[in-house]
What we know:
This protein is an alpha+beta fold. Helices cover 30% and strands 28% of the residues.
Amino acid sequence: MILHRRDLEALALRILLSLATPTEIDAEPFAMTVEAADDATEGSHGFLVKLASRPPSDIGVRVSVSTTEEYFAASVAFAAKAIADAFQLEVIESLGGAARPSCEGHAHPMQAAADQHGAWWECPRDSSRCRRIWPLTHD
Ligand SMILES: [Zn+2]
């Protein structure tokens, strides 16, 4: 199976927008790019996902997505978590420590989590309080 660059862009943008909510800020100052890395090993595709909120110091995270059916879903889920972790750190830092994404009713941010089926934001104190990151559709 193949994950195209534009699919990963949509996923990374969704993660970025979840960090921008509630909307005192928008995603506009955070320029995000996804590049295909050409050092992919057999059986996987590599991508470099960058968030440049304070140019020229790009924040980049490398992710690898399996092309085999058996590992594809899990590799995308863990890639989504890696992107979420990297973007979250940068956004929180850029906003002076603001909790993003906000955990409703709590002062702390939600934290990214993943298993072989998907990735999600969850409350660090109550994992039943969660918000889906990937897959993008259906529950
Ligand atoms: Zn919470």
